Amino acid sequence: MPFGPGGYDIVPPDGLEYLEELWKAKLSDDSDWVVGSGDETRRSPRHTTDRAIEAGRTVDADRLMVHYMYPHDPFPLAESELFEPFDPLRAGDVSREIVWERYLDNLRFVLDEVEVLLENIDADDVAITADHGEAFGEFGFYRHVIGCPLPCMRRVPWVKTKASDTGTYEPEAPDPTMGETASTRDRLKQLGYL
C-alpha cells in the first residue's frame, strides 16, 4: 500500500487512570448485551453505555473516553445478506443507497445510546466524534483503509455538547473484569476484523 502509518504513538494502558476493555468480555449469545443471532451477533451498544455510566458515577477521573463500535460494520440490525455489506456493494449485488440506509440505521442505534449516556453522566464538555469515516465505492475503496487520505475516510463529525446526570437510568451491565474473557481472535472475529 503506498500510504499508511509507519507506527503509532499510543498511550499504553498503564498510562490511563482507568481502563475497561469491553471487547474482551465474554458474553453469551443470548445475553441482553448482544444483538443479532447466531454467527451474526455483536455486542450491544447498551453494554458500553452502562459501563460508561457506571464509570462516570464511580471513577474519580478528569475525563472519560467512551468508544462505541457502531456504526462500524458488520451491521447486526440489517437483514442477513447485508450483515457484512461492503462485499455485496463492491460486487454490485446491492445498491449504495441500501447500504447507506443500513449504515444510518446503525448510526441511529448508537446515537440513541449516546443520548442515554449524556443524560446520566456529568460533563461540562463533551465531544462526539469518530475514529474514521467509511468509503462506499469512492475511487474503488470500500469500508475504511488505515492511513487512506480520501476525505470520506478522513473527515469525521465533531459535535460539542454537555452532559448532566439526571439519574434516570441505572446501569446493569456486568463489570467485564469480573467474568471470563474471550480470546483475542474470537473478539476480533465478532467485531468483524477476521
Explain briefly what this protein structure is.
The protein has 194 residues and is an alpha+beta fold.
User: What is the overall shape?
Assistant: globular
Mean pLDDT reading: 88
Task: Give the neighbour order of strands across the main sheet.
Answer: 1-2
Binned strand content: 5-15%
Number of helices: 5
Order of helices and strands: EEHHHEEEHEH
Q: How many beta-strand runs? A: 6
Termini separation comes to 19 Å
Number of domains: 1
- Structural class of the secondary elements? alpha+beta
Helical content band: 25-40%
Main pleated sheet: 2 strands, antiparallel
Protein name: Sulfatase N-terminal domain-containing protein
InterPro entries: Alkaline_phosphatase_core_sf
Q: Which key phrases capture this entry?
A:
about 190 residues, alpha+beta, two-stranded antiparallel ribbon, 5 helices, about 30% helix, globular, Alkaline_phosphatase_core_sf, Sulfatase N-terminal domain-containing protein
Detailed description of the structure:
- With 194 residues, the chain is an alpha+beta fold.
- The protein has one domain.
- Helices cover 28% and strands 11% of the residues.
- It contains 5 helices and 6 strands.
- A two-stranded antiparallel sheet has the order 1-2. The protein has a two-stranded antiparallel ribbon with strand order 3-6. A two-stranded antiparallel sheet has the order 4-5.
- The longest helix is centred in the middle third of the chain and has 23 residues.
- It is globular and about 50 Å long.
